[in-house]
Write a structure and sequence with these properties.
Oligomer: single chain
Structural class: mainly alpha
Strand content: under 5%
Number of helices: 6
Helix content: 55-70%
Radius of gyration: 31 Å
């Protein structure tokens, strides 16, 4: 079909008025959308975390144990004063939440009866992502301020430099 233009008479021919009257206008069958209910959001991850911690308190290490582990790692690199205590606390809580959710996934499975993902899978992945972010921040701080800047020797790189590359 022609698409129109600047010339008189160019373009798509107009529809006959008689045909328009026969077809009529289509009625819109739109139903007005109901007003949404006001939802007060809760911290759902905290609920799953508390339930998982009650169920798996024997399998998941205590926060003190996890904190001592990461602080020992930081102290071994000589960076005790550089990593903020809140960052360590965030890492410990996120790791504990991840371990608790994984424990629940092992107990009840990763799928529900309706073949949907268990809420512990979603919560566990969120905890894991947050834990990884905290750990990456800690390792960046350690790498920047560590007293032991000597990295392991790369044998391949050493061979290249000895050959004159």
């Amino acid at each position: 079909m022609p698409s129109g233009g600047y010339r008189p008479g160019a373009g798509r021919p107009r529809k006959n008025i008689q045909d328009k009257k026969l077809e009529g206008k289509a009625k819109s069958n739109t139903v007005p959308a109901p007003t949404p209910k006001r939802v007060y959001s809760k911290n759902v991850m905290a609920d799953y975390f508390s339930m998982a911690m009650k169920e798996c308190e024997k399998e998941v290490p205590a926060a003190g144990v996890l904190r001592a582990e990461i602080e020992e790692y930081i102290a071994a690199r000589g960076c005790e004063g550089y990593v903020a205590p809140q960052t360590v606390t965030d890492y410990v809580l996120n790791r504990q939440g991840f371990l608790a959710c994984e424990c629940m996934n092992r107990k009840i499975g990763r799928m529900t009866k309706d073949l949907k993902l268990s809420p512990y899978v979603t919560a566990g992945s969120a905890y894991y992502k947050a834990m990884q972010g905290d750990f990456n921040l800690i390792t960046q701080i350690i790498n920047r301020h560590s007293n032991t800047q000597a990295e392991e020797k790369n044998a391949f790189l050493e061979l290249l430099t000895n050959r004159g590359f």
